[in-house]
């Protein structure tokens, strides 16, 4: 019985500290999401490395342009346009374009910035350690999925302390696989026309168009 009482006391004593850290984490996430929303048109260069069972599966570099929920994502293998409803994915090697209406989960896999809003539902979050990342002071925020059945299990986010810009995102899946995204260049306040986020057939005249909707 004594050990149960001791455990309850420990829980009661540490609860305010946990609640405070959770509130600090939410404030950090709120400010990061708000900074992104106020940034207007955004362009970011990034590297992404995939891991499975502790080993690296390879690295890739890419570029993404964003305006609200719209994005244009480019890597060496694919180009993806999303206008807020429809997605066009161009496969460079096959010279083909797949048209689809992506689910929320599919968008999270394509657009790393969609992860900034996951904390609003289905995730617990806490503030981690403060550190330097690539010479820049950052705050660490850790998000853990509350639904153990979903594939995405954990997200680790590094945010700059002054400007609330995400510079590193680690995404962990339930099966143990992991992706690490490092932002190498970040620009805000860009004026991006809506046409930037729509596939233009004239630019890819030989591409085969496959409608999957």
From TrEMBL:
**Pfam families, sorted:** LolA_2 (PF16584)
Instruction: Name the source's superkingdom.
Output: Bacteria
Signal peptide limits: 1-19
The family database entries (InterPro entries) matched by this protein are listed as:
LolA/LolB/LppX (IPR029046), OM_lipoprot_carrier_LolA-like (IPR004564)
Q: Which organism is it from?
A: Bacteroides salyersiae CL02T12C01
Q: What is this protein called?
A: Outer membrane lipoprotein carrier protein LolA
- Gene3D superfamilies for the chain: Lipoprotein localisation LolA/LolB/LppX
* Keyword match Cytoplasm: no
Keywords on record: Signal
